[in-house]
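Report of the visiting student (M.T.), summer placement. My assignment was to run the structure pipeline on a short list of targets and document each run. The first record concerns Acyl-CoA hydrolase.
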Amino acid sequence: MRRSIADTKVEVTRLIAPHHVNPLGTLYGGYMLHWLVDAGSIVATDLAEANVALGYLDRMHFVEPIRVGDIVKFRSWVVYVRRSSITVLVESYVKRGDKMPLATIARMIFVKLGEDGRPEPVGAEVYAQSEWERLLLSHFSEWRNSMEHLLREERPAGDLPTLGHLLVMPEDTIYGNIMYGGKLLYYLDQLAAIAAMNFKPNIYVTASVNSINFRRPILVGDVIEVQADVDYVGRTSLEVAFKVYAKGTRGRRYVAGGYMTFVNMTGGRPTPLGEELIKDPDALRRKEIGVAEAKALRAVYYSEEEPAYAAMLRRS
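After the run finished, the structure tokens were exported:
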């Protein structure tokens, strides 16, 4: 089966309610992460015509604040396919009068699962017709190939303190007995924020997910152990590194790891933390790349014709 990138598009619209926001009245990051994975899972499942599992999420930015009563529109496309993996672009926009600025963007890799829960060939491909489709297909084929070594790593390196434990319940899945990636991200956003609070009590909001690698499935009945700590502190933001282990009938195993960035908003705006810390030198590189990309994304708006990401690539 072959489909053009444009023909894979899926749209989802959500209304932000009071229980979705943080103490500042803006959307809690855990909900956004869950909803982004929802949108990505839908478009990947539609192409694969089978169950899929989230394998990797790269540099997800919170570009525009979202508040109670806002209408948020999610759009997702399949932008590249390999043997058993599906690369997906998800964008969300928030209505602001007659404009719809980009709110978040996420790049994800899903894996098609067979009935035995193991990866199997996708059995479909995408192709480009328009100029923006060719731009995305070229970019994401290179991006996917560059991710190959990261998908095999168990990051971050080094020891981290144990922050908390969770028991995986049936409601944490959407099919079978494998934990849903969106639900895990919802929990991880909370626990990573706690790690930030442990470092220095403030009001933090999620600024970005720098990367998360999902290495092995988590099953219903497993006990999840989350290890997390602050590994970088800048002027107003800090990065939290985390690892996730699962323990159950398959023994104790490493299942995921990554980094999240939080901004100190105690003063109602980005507020100095009063100290700096560098445990991981690579955090500086991740921050520089993330800040530059977030700045570029703030300059693009909703278009019926093409994704905002294509417009950003064209400008770069």
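The domain at 1-152 is CATH 3.10.129.10 (Thiol Ester Dehydrase; Chain A). The longest helix spans residues 29-48. I thank the supervising group for their guidance throughout the placement.
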